[in-house]
Known about the structure:
Elements: H1 2-11, H2 36-65, E1 91-94, H3 95-104, H4 106-113, E2 117-129, E3 135-140, E4 146-151, E5 166-177, E6 179-187
Parallel strand pairs: 1-2, 4-6
Antiparallel strand pairs: 2-3, 2-5, 3-4, 5-6
Helix pairs in contact: 3-4
Amino acid sequence: MITEVAEVAAATPQAPKAPALPQSVRPQAATPQVNLQQLKGCLVILAVLGGFAFVMHLFQRATSSSSTTPSSYTSSSTTTSSSSDTYSSPISVSADQLYREYSDNEIAADTTYKNKSVVVSGTVKSLGKDILGSPYVVLDAGFLFGVQCVFSRSDTSLARVSKGDSISVRGRVSGKMGNVVVRDCALE
């Protein structure tokens, strides 16, 4: 019986086998080729453009916030009640209290302090210059952040201040951006 099956299989015509194609002619699956150098170059360009946009944003913000002149802080009989805040009558507050009020309710703190003259007292946590070259001091508020007091570029009074010093700074609150920011500052 096995011999009969073998004879039937041998007698059955089979389709001819296709000749083998050379390697270069065989169809290949389409796989995308990624050039890592080009990808890295694109990422670097995007990072540079993003950094440039960020710097321009900071520069625009700094120039728009410094557009107020010191004369806006002098007392005048023609000022309205909304702009009656003067350097002669600042709100005295500790760095701890100012930061805590902004952390608890930023909207309420803006109502109380934003664009108003303050004298902030506290311990120096750090000193430095911002990206635009303006000197600043951060007063410790017992948290990760604090109260950042920004001085004019020409002010050299921070040269005699060190970390750990207790100081009082007069300036105008501009709100919270991580730190509570006080601009147009001067040492008291």
